[in-house]
User: What shape does this take?
Amino acid sequence: MRYAATKFAETALRMTLEVLDHRRPPAQLRPVLDAALIDVVRAFAKSSAPARGLGAARLQRIHVRLIDPHTAEVFGTYQRGPRVLALAAQVTLRAQGWRVSAVQIG
Assistant: This one.
């Protein structure tokens, strides 16, 4: 179960960073993020330009901690140019599969 949550989290967070960098349209987050989070990510991506000159955000490392069989906490780092930044999320197992139910990107 932890392996599935880890693989899902890697994909979902990488996609989210790509949306924030304007490399992917926000609609592609529908299968992985809760609807309310998609709206927040879309609004944030519209209101901020990608960090010019620092390059694209690259997911570096994540760690997953299972809270219960249906919930996991995710935390890790990503790199933008020479800067290393933190991110965190909560993923929840639902009938349709894993979904990001909360996210914090620093």
Notes: The CA atoms of residues 26 and 42 lie 6 Å apart. The chain has a mean pLDDT of 91. The first helix runs from residue 2 to 20.
